[in-house]
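Severity: low
Component: inverse-folding endpoint
Summary: output formatting inconsistent between runs
Steps to reproduce: submit the following structure tokens with default settings.
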């Protein structure tokens, strides 16, 4: 028999599902409590407000990204690592997609969360830059330092604004689709296309073809 999930963990899991499906602004603590079949008082025993739940979810997202966005120990990078990083990014963005959907509002509403996010962003950018440098060292990408820095920043801008792009240019009713999110990962890979070394081009093009998802209505 599976162990029973703690009430606090249930609140976090179900809040994530509701935020993703309906948007964080549309979901109140009363909605969460009713969805879980508990009283608002019981929910407030575990979380003093909705911002506290969001902070918990951001901490999960942050730990997940920190866990995979790092160089492997004791070996150089390969094209297979590129697949790993992009698929891991897709999985993290999909699981916590509400964070990307209304990020500016979330950060404006909670100064502590905003400070934590800034620190996370600096760390993620530094780690991503080190990974790109690792691909250069491995002979997979050909870039100088200025190009490497620009590519890192451009990739970050795409990843953090892709959901907003979808919501403002595509007819998104309710929840997003994982396929449309996958296209955002493809866009990051497309940024690198002019920097791929000849010996790695066939493998990278194969990865690009796997990630490509067409956008409707000529928005591509």
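Observed output (run 2 of 3):
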């Amino acid at each position: 028999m599976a162990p029973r999930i703690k009430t606090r963990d249930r609140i976090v899991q179900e809040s994530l599902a509701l935020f993703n499906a309906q948007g964080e602004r549309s979901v109140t603590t009363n909605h969460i409590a009713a969805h879980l079949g508990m009283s608002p008082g019981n929910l407030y025993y575990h979380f003093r407000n909705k911002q506290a739940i969001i902070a918990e979810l951001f901490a999960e997202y942050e730990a997940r990204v920190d866990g995979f966005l790092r160089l492997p120990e004791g070996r150089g990078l390969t094209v297979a690592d590129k697949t790993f990083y992009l698929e891991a990014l897709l999985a993290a963005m999909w699981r916590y997609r509400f964070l990307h959907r209304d990020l500016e509002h979330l950060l404006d509403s909670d100064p502590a969360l905003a400070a934590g996010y800034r620190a996370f962003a600096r760390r993620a950018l530094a780690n991503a830059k080190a990974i790109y440098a690792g691909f250069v060292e491995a002979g997979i990408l050909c870039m100088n330092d200025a190009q490497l820095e620009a590519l890192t920043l451009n990739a970050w801008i795409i990843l953090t604004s892709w959901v907003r792009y979808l919501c403002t240019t595509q007819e998104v009713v309710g929840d997003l689709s994982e396929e449309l999110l996958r296209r955002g990962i493809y866009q990051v890979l497309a940024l690198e296309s002019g920097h791929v070394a000849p010996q790695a081009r066939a493998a990278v093009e194969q990865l690009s073809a796997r990630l490509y998802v067409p956008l409707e209505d000529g928005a591509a």
